[in-house]
Design the sequence.
């Protein structure tokens, strides 16, 4: 075990577990290990982000336990800490030697789908809808009508982008050869932005008022790598709850549908609108009813604005902040995907005018 791991067995096993590093599917920098406990069960030992407080980690685990109790076996079980030794800081959270917080959660079998079939996508959205229904009953975090934090963040970020355009970032790259890959992508994005009247798109996002929506606990970082399917194409696991918080359920729907590659066949559109690309999945998350136009608008607006703001985040992290990532090629591939969607996203947010009709 490395010095960054928490004291184990803090979860009360009589013997040592078999531990092996596990590759992360995300970009958070969390440390992950696959663990086989003495009873033969498989688990994931994972650190929380460096700025995660103990109350927040415990809230995330309370949400996961509530979802399991509500009958969702697609949510990993969380292991309880036994005893009250110095390493134990909560019922399910352990503090490591460096002060970081750790969890032990069930290893979920299955594989993600980059390009699920329409049937698989609908099944996943149906299960996500079921998860949302149970999450809305979490004691102390019941659904309420309030502004969307996701909408607020994108509106504020669009204002910052208007004040500090991408073209200004090119000078930040200087002559650092290590930034050539990011600089070339920046120049491509600037060309798309300027030929697609990107400023008008940003002005449209920045003009959105505080939209009042129905909020509740949602996952917020549910994308293709965090939804697992079994061999029969059925959703069998949702993983990584560390970004969970309160917002509209449309945030999760937009995030997941926008992360999948849709095959342009008869039932799957190549439109920049994710609700056009995944009609059966949208129907599934609406629990069989036809989603209202304002619901579809909000999902599409959230996806399109996330493409623009997400690309802005990557440019800032790589060029301005000089942030390092373990798998840079994976980061660049993510940026390439966003760049490929940029023109459509700019067009879409210009056409969806801000106003009360976005409110679900």
Sequence:
């Amino acid at each position: 075990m490395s010095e960054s791991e928490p004291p184990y067995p803090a979860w009360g096993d009589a013997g040592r577990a078999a531990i092996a590093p596990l590759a992360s599917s995300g970009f958070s920098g969390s440390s992950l290990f696959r663990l086989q406990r003495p009873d033969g069960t498989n688990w994931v030992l994972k650190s929380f982000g460096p700025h995660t407080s103990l109350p927040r980690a415990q809230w995330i685990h309370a949400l996961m336990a509530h979802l399991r109790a509500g009958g969702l076996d697609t949510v990993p079980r969380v292991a309880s800490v036994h005893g009250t030794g110095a390493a134990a800081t909560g019922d399910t959270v352990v503090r490591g030697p460096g002060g970081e917080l750790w969890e032990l959660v069930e290893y979920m079998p299955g594989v993600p789908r980059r390009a699920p079939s329409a049937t698989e996508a609908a099944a996943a959205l149906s299960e996500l809808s079921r998860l949302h229904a149970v999450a809305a009953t979490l004691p102390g975090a019941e659904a309420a009508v309030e502004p969307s934090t996701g909408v607020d963040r994108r509106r504020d970020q669009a204002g910052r982008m208007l004040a500090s355009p991408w073209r200004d970032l090119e000078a930040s790259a200087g002559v650092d050869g290590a930034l050539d890959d990011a600089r070339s992508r920046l120049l491509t994005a600037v060309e798309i932005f300027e030929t697609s009247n990107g400023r008008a798109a940003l002005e449209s996002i920045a003009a959105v008022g505080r939209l009042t929506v129905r909020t509740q606990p949602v996952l917020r970082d549910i994308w293709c790598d965090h939804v697992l399917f079994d061999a029969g194409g059925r959703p069998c696991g949702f993983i990584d709850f560390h970004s969970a918080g309160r917002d509209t359920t449309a945030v999760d729907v937009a995030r997941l549908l926008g992360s999948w590659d849709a095959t342009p066949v008869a039932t799957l559109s190549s439109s920049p609108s994710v609700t056009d690309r995944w009609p059966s999945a949208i129907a599934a998350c609406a629990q069989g009813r036809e989603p209202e136009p304002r619901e579809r608008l909000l999902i599409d607006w959230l996806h399109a604005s996330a493409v623009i703001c997400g690309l802005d985040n990557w440019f800032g992290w790589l060029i301005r902040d000089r942030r390092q990532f373990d798998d840079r090629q994976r980061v660049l591939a993510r940026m390439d995907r966003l760049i490929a969607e940029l023109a459509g996203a700019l067009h879409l947010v210009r056409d969806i005018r801000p106003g009360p009709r976005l409110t679900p």
